[in-house]
Amino acid sequence: MSKFDYDLITIGAGSGGVRASRMAARTGAKVAVVEESRVGGTCVMRGCVPKKLLVYASSFAHSFGDARGFGWDVAEPSFDWGELIANKNAELNRLEGIYGRILRENNVDLLDGRGVVTGPNSVEVGGKSYTAKRILIATGGWPHLPDVPGIEHAITSNEALDLDELPKRIVIVGGGYIAVEFAGLFNALGADVTIIIRAGNILRGFDEDIREALAAEMEKQGITIHRECVVRSIEPEGDGYSVRLHGTEIIDCDKVFYATGRTPNTKGLGLEEVGVTLTDKGAVVVDEYFQTSVPSIFALGDVISRIELTPVAINEGMAFVATQFEGRPTPMDYENVPAAVFSQPPVGTVGLTEVEARERGDVDIYMSRFRPMKHTLSGRESHAMMKLIVDRASQRVVGCHMVGDDAPEIVQGFAVALKCGATKAQFDATVGIHPTAAEEFVTMREKLPDHDEDQ
Ligand code: NDP
Question: Is 434 a catalytic residue?
Answer without folding.
Answer: yes
